[in-house]
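hey can u check if this looks right to u? its 240 residues, i copy pasted from the old doc so theres a chance i mangled smth
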Amino acid sequence: MTTEVHGLPDFYASAGGDVAARLVAARLHALWPALPGQSVLGIGHAAPYLGLWQAEARRAVSLVPAHHNGRLARWPARPAAAATLAAEEDALPFADRSFDRVLLVHGLEAAENARRLLREVWRVLRDDGRMIVVAPNRVGMWAHLERTPFGHGQPYSRGQLERMLARQLFRAERRDAALFLPPYGLRFLGACAPVMERAGRLVCPRLAGVVILEAEKDLFAGMPAGAVAIRRRIVLAEAV
């Protein structure tokens, strides 16, 4: 079933959307402060965030799944990604091991088939590459109000997200969260938003609006842990 993320362009073009984007971007920048000379792929509607690394990255590509059928979201305060295209999420138009980093925002919760999407990410990610997933938090307030894009699609708890990634051969490395402030009146909360974020991180870390998880390819997950014992088979034959 296709799940479309609604209102992305209008949300990010608004004052409240700009506040939310800056709060998420701050956590992304903390996880990946610099990516000089690396290839970065954003999937879903990651274009507003790719500007964090576009100036220093070797290339930055934004891919919007074809079934979203919507205008691309833009964050006016930052440049758009160097290249933007639409493609099927279960058949990414890139060669194996093409990217050093993959950012998945407004993608997993709206995927037609999350398992296939993650396996495609695994394929195009280099063996030492890393991925960040930003997804609506199931127990957070943002997932239950449709006034923002995070209120659409399939939300996840941190445990659910980690288990899904493990099943698709990813290993969670670092965990973070963002959007502790309420999803209404955002434009009036802009000045105090960083303070509210810090307070929320200390007081109620599990009630964030979005879960942020960094993972790397688990190259050994599908391999046997040790040698496989070979059973001996004794065959009785008549003596000649």
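The two ends are 68 Å apart (CA to CA).
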